[in-house]
Amino acid sequence: MDPHLLLRDSEPRIHPTAELKSCRLGRYASIAERVILREVTVGDFSYFERHAEAAYTSVGKFCSIASNTRINALEHPLERPTTHKVSYRPNEYFRWLGVDAGFLERRRGRPVTIGHDVWIGHGAVILPGVAIGNGAVIGANAVVRRDVPAFAIAAGIPARPLRQRFPPEIAARIEALAWWDWPAERIAEAVPDMQAMPIEAFLDRWERIDP
Q1: Rg of the Cα trace of the chain?
Q2: Is the pTM of this model over 0.70?
Q3: Bridge partners of 119?
């Protein structure tokens, strides 16, 4: 089939109520209503559902980020006389007092990194500095304080890995296949096999196909 007939428009879709500042969006990315993103990179095919927020975050390809999630949730300065934003955003209240640039850089210095094909469940909170590996799943309403390994399913408050999605050898084969980096035409060709084949059969077949 002619690729031009197969593929839809690859331009990112951004709901008019979403607020984005200094963001980069990949092909087919989708940002739903009232999402707020600040200095976020979003990979190809990844999407944010409604009312999600993220800041200072790198999101890989094919990530599914549910509604009401908070990624790199705002921290407050516990060591100061007040945790209130009056100390780091006094410009919202007083003339001639600017944003605390040092505190802003401190926030930027603890980015969140999310791998490819990560699913973050409804209402989950990812705290600053966390890295989430490829293929991981974060349960609904989890609070993630520590790094989550690739292909782990993590849940709870604080979130802890519950189990791995696949045995180590299968996870390694998926990582090596890196299907998320394939051209869109090849992914479209593979989708029926993703739907119908057990994971080992899928890997057996697509590992033999030349890229």
Answers
A1: 19
A2: yes
A3: 64, 137
